[in-house]
Amino acid sequence: MTSSAIFLILVLLSLVSFAMTRQKALTRAGGDPAKLHSLPRHYGYFAATCVLLPSFFAFGIWLIFGKSIIEGLIVSGLPDRLFEVGTDQATLVLNRIRLVVENASSPETDPDILAAAQKFNDLYIRGIWAAFALSVSFGLVGFYLASNRTQPDFRARNKFERIMLIALALSSVIAIATTLGIVASLLFESLRFFHEVPVTEFVFGLHWSPQTALRADQVASSGAFGAVPLFAGTLLISFIAMLVAGPIGLLAAIYLTQYANTKMRKIAKPMLEVLAGVPTVVYGFFAALTVAPFFRDLGITLGLDIASESALAAGIVMGIMIIPFVSSLSDDAITAVPKSLKDGSLALGATPSETITQVVLPAALPGIVGAFLLAVSRAVGETMIVVMAAGMQPKLTANPFEAVTTVTVQIVALLTGDQEFDSAKTLSAFALGLALFVSTMALNVIALKIVRKYREVYD
Amino acid sequence: MTDTKIAKMTAKDVHVFYGDNHAVKGISLDLHQDEVTALIGPSGCGKSTFLRCLNRMNDTVATCRVEGKITLDNEDIYDPSIDVVQLRARVGMVFQKPNPFPKSIYDNVAYGPRIHGLAQSRTDLDEIVTVSLEKAGLWNEVKDRLDSPGTALSGGQQQRLCIARAIAVNPEVILMDEPCSALDPIATAKVEALIDELKGRYAIAIVTHSMQQAARVSQKTAFFHMGDLVEHGDTTDIFTSPKEERTRDYITGRFG
């Protein structure tokens, strides 16, 4: 009896109850659906949910807690001999048992372990049958109750809609709860970090060198956790990106909304949106393998010193990546300007370009500002391109020809490879993540506020 | 066409197509300097479409095609040598829904003079704005708040602001496309009084759904039906002794 088989049986049960209840409702009404409060199928839906919800609930409990309960039972029944070394042994023993359970040909020889594995299998089979019986009986009870209520004047439709409403609300609660969970985990780990490193050092420190001593006698310094160079690097690259994406995206949006004919628009707009669909890692190697060497070589020809991993290359490629953001959001803002305003300006003898610069763009400005802010927040949070093309040196510089590093790059660097979760080095990643989260969220909130305020003007 | 006066604008055998849809079928009509011409007819009869041909606003509709000849002071306005921008400065337009720009009242009126370079100095511009607002009968209501946004005015005030905006570029012809259909009766009365004021200085064409309005403000009336110009003549004649049965049916409210 596998979980998927049980799942199928429960679904079948609900389908059967759907059909039976539907039929029963019809019969109770003497075959005339008009005498029922709701359509026959609504009685069916109601019964089906009455079967599915409790049975899935029971089965879900088994899926979540079943194994650990059995394991607890087995471990408590094992001879003390196996735990001689210490309390940590419990997980080790459990792992040995698990290995035997999952793989019959494992080289385990200890008779107690083999016996425990056998016991586990027995208990598991018994448990799954019990869970099966329990969930089916829950379903049957649900079916019985629903079937009892199947009277012509029972408001099955309203009840079912109520159930659906709760399901929809639950889905949104899950989304919100996940977000809150992530924020909470960022927050708590950051607090741990700030126990070891003062907030002021993190916010105002000009040095980033997150090497901490592994052993007490090591020569390495205790590390420096000043995040300013990282944020400076992030800002520098985002600024370069916006220098590229802002004008190009806005001008493209103006062309597409105001000048391009329908045919051109039909081709160009999806093409531009394809840019948004290119995986960022592809932009990343484009930046690292094509653009960065190009600028380095250009620098050699011009007598400039351009690093082979430069803020310039990363920023420009990131700018190309966010062009579709700017253009498609600005496009929306410009299209939202009523045609009557444009006509009014044209009818006064203004040329199309005068109309655009003096009437359409000012009217669309809040939307365009919102688009820019959203693009900035996207640029600040972007990781892959900068990891591949911006370098790793936490240098405090405004020179775009040098290699810099960003918040996201450092988070990647801190959390790849082996790490211990009690060192300031690892925990600093959470602090960086929190800082990044707060700043992009602030940008998004401001952007959405501006966009929404602007919408109110014309609705 | 028994008019002996020289027409300001003349349309001869004008046809308009939207793609395959033949919206206006061979209309000939004159507009005179000191007259208001009302275009009446049921919805979809082509009167607004015809009006929009007179300052080439139909150019903004990609599928629209205009045939025939329209002249302004004997110049063909569809001639390739004509600059549509200058044409629209001479033939102003007021729209159905008031459409003030999201700028201050002052900037709304100053918009046209600025883009056409009509004012040499700030004093000139102030003068134009003041006079235009006075002509539009709005000056007394807004003179203390020229800096507040035009969109904050009431619907009737907005429409008079749009008329002031059109007057400010000193046009010769003013086209009005149902200028009162979005206004309440009091605002409508004010706009109608304004049209009466403006009559002597501009050739005015007004599209309207209200027969009473046509009778009140116009000297000439043209009745459109299904893209045809059914009847055209002095407003009093059209309303008291229409020659065509369709005209009579429409103005007595039997259809449309």
Task: Describe this protein with a few key phrases.
heterodimer, A: 459 residues, mainly alpha, MetI-like fold, 2 domains, two-stranded antiparallel ribbon, 2 strands, flat, B: 256 residues, alpha/beta, Rossmann fold, six-stranded mixed β-sheet, four-stranded antiparallel β-sheet, 10 helices
CATH level-4 homologous superfamily of the domain at 9-98 and 170-251 in chain B: P-loop containing nucleotide triphosphate hydrolases
Ranges of chain B where pLDDT stays below 50 over 5 or more residues in a row are none
**Would you count the extended β strands of chain B for me?**
10
Instruction: Give the low-confidence spans of chain A.
Output: none
Report the average pLDDT across residues of chain B.
87
Major sheet: arrangement of strands of chain B: 6-7-8-3-9-10
What is the strand tally of chain A?
A: 2
Structural class of chain B: alpha/beta
Strand order of the largest sheet of chain A: 1-2
Looking at the overall shape, the CATH architecture of the largest domain in chain A is Orthogonal Bundle
Radius of gyration of chain A, rounded?
32 Å
Number of helical segments of chain A? 15
| CA-based shape of chain A | flat
* Relative helix content of chain B: 25-40%
On the 0 to 100 scale, the average pLDDT of chain A is 84
Instruction: Just name the CATH architecture of the domain at 9-98 and 170-251 in chain B.
Output: 3-Layer(aba) Sandwich
Q: SS-based structural class of chain A? A: mainly alpha
Radius of gyration of chain B equals 18 Å
* Percent of residues in beta strands of chain B: 25-35%
What does the main sheet of chain A amount to? 2 strands, antiparallel
